[in-house]
Amino acid sequence: MKNLLESARMALGALTANRMRSLLTMLGIIIGVAAVIAMVSVGSGATQRIEDQISSMGSNLIIVMAGSVTTNGMRLGSGASLSLTLDDAAAIANECPSVSAAAPTVRSTAQVIYGNTNWATSIYGITPTYLDVRDLSIDRGVSITQQDVQSTARVALLGATVVRNLFGDTDPVGQLFRIRNVPFTVAGVLSPKGQSPSGQDQDDVILIPLSTAKTRVLGSSQAGAQSVGNVLVQARGPSQMDSAIDEITALLRQRHHLQPGAEDDFSVRNLSELFAARENSARVMAILLGAIASVSLIVGGIGIMNIMLVSVTERTREIGIRKAIGARMGDILTQFLVEAVTLSLAGGILGIALGVAASAVIGVVAQWSTHIGAASILLAFTFSALVGVFFGYYPARQAARLDPIIALRYE
Prior knowledge:
- By secondary structure, the chain is α+β, with helices and mostly antiparallel strands.
- 55% of the residues lie in helices and 19% in strands.
- The protein has 2 domains: 2-53 and 277-409, no CATH class; 82-264, no CATH class.
- The chain has helices at 2-17, 19-57, 86-95, 129-133, 146-150, 160-166, 210-217, 241-255, 271-314, 316-324, 329-365, 374-400, 404-409, and strands at residues 61-66, 70-71, 74-75, 84-85, 99-114, 117-126, 138-141, 155-158, 176-179, 182-190, 205-209, 227-228, 230-235, 266-270.
- Helix 2 (19-57) packs antiparallel against helix 9 (271-314).
């Protein structure tokens, strides 16, 4: 331990004697570490943003949509036929073991008016279960209740975007506004959810009781007593998503009296799989960005090896004198290896500081989401140390193997 401290002291002395050369040598490591941290932070930020968006959609979410219809040989898209009913939603919740909840919904768009202000937004007819399935919470006011659904109450929950554009700084709770000239009272305001993975603003929405939506807002095309546009289903856990889809499909085929081989008049979508693929793409991008930036670290390591070989040549006579007075090969090897590692670690520390600053600048200037994790900083620091060991070992070994007699004759 004493010899190691002495070697470290001598190594630091040699480096500080040539400050400019040491700084220029560290520059490659500084840039390399900074590039790794900045690039990984961009990739990790994209991954984190997608994870947050997936979470905002609701946990273990499955969407059952009404199916398509064929008219005069033309197949219309999903939702063209209102093949799902309230009874279907109740059956899914009660008869599928892998399902914890099911929320029937209907949807439309409408112009809403408050005073002399208006705003076009999405209107969802829901039951109270919808808020649980979507992991929605109330920021102000109260939620929609089952009593509101049963009595076709004209109450509404507003998203943050609607509140901002329709009410401005006015507290909306308790205020009257109109949806297609039908007056509604604001019961509460939803907590912000942000964008969905598809880029949709989840706060640009108004939720009203399902019964009210069907009878007072959506019109005759969707006003059937039982029909709904889709059913949001929450599986009991991530591992039960596939079994929940199979159970839902089998149940609905049975309820809709579909013969074997007949096409489904509904569709079941597992959003988690779709979004997970997008998340994996972002994660691969983060790895590729980090790998590309790591090339700079290798270039910096080559610079350390080069300058250390020059240092060995310049200090050949010094090495000969040290060996002549009793220094062993291990002492010489340790000294030069400590010099290389010190250069690399110092460059790593400065590179980390520069990388964190660069990541912050990228986030502000480019408006990109960035995320710096402790793991990425630790990885960059460790890799810089390994670069010093790897590229410093050969020059240190060359110095340790010098013949003291030849070294003493060196001019």
